[in-house]
Specification:
This protein has 225 residues and is α+β, with helices and mostly antiparallel strands. It is built from five helices and twelve strands.
Length: 225
């Protein structure tokens, strides 16, 4: 029998780490948000400064905690290298991994012997991992500036339908603190990052995806082997 933590990982793996392939979540109108019209050419200065800073961070590592919509909690370590590369190593006996090599994202559960592959271009992770954080084309839907937090709501129908990603940054350092994905049912999953280090280097195989192993594993699964 799976533990609660392992069940949370397998059920919410696509949602919490930004790997949604579509959805129809609506933007909640929260007091304090500055709504940005889709046709508006100028991006709010706070959002642009944050985007420029985050684009300048070419590598990062740290720890994360993920909170599911029912309060389930998981965590582990992450490694990021721009453009397009990220790896999440979850704690726990499932040896769960999520890896992007710049083209694809693979979700590995060695305990269950599963390997699921998705195009990076169709996940919200693309918005976080691009060489330049692009706020054009009406992607910025709302901005909220507070003393201790700047919140930016983004959407991009070409990437993940009408679903929403909300990113929260330190207003003084412009560092990313957490993000929330809202799914088609309006349920939120939040990932908080901490103990981060910038400008780090990684072994060459950190973001490697074994495409041959993925094909062989899924071929055996389809054949019932």
């Amino acid at each position: 029998m799976k533990t609660q933590t392992e069940f949370a990982i397998t059920r919410r793996q696509l949602l919490g780490l930004g790997l949604m392939l579509g959805g129809a979540a609506a933007l909640n109108l929260v007091p304090g948000y500055q709504l940005v019209a889709a046709a508006q050419a100028a991006v709010p200065p706070a959002a642009q400064k944050i985007a420029d800073h985050f684009s300048s961070v070419k590598s990062m590592s740290g720890e994360f905690v993920q909170f599911g919509p029912k309060g389930e909690q998981t965590g582990g370590k992450f490694f990021l290298e721009r453009p397009g590369k990220i790896r999440f190593n979850y704690d726990g006996s499932s040896n769960f991994r999520v890896i992007s090599d710049g083209k694809s994202v693979v979700i590995l559960n060695k305990k269950l012997n599963t390997s699921d592959l998705y195009p990076l271009s169709k996940t919200p992770l693309k918005l976080l991992l691009d060489d330049r954080i692009d706020l054009s084309g009406g992607r910025v839907k709302a901005v909220k500036e507070e003393d201790d937090l700047t919140t930016i709501k983004l959407s991009d129908k070409s990437v993940f339908g009408n679903a929403m990603i909300t990113m929260m940054f330190d207003p003084k350092t412009y560092d990313l603190r957490q993000w929330t994905i809202t799914d088609a049912q309006g349920k939120d999953t939040t990932v908080m990052i901490f103990n981060t280090k910038e400008g780090v280097s990684f072994p060459p195989d950190t973001f490697a995806i074994d495409y041959t192993a993925n094909r062989e594993l899924n071929a055996r699964t389809r054949s019932g082997g």
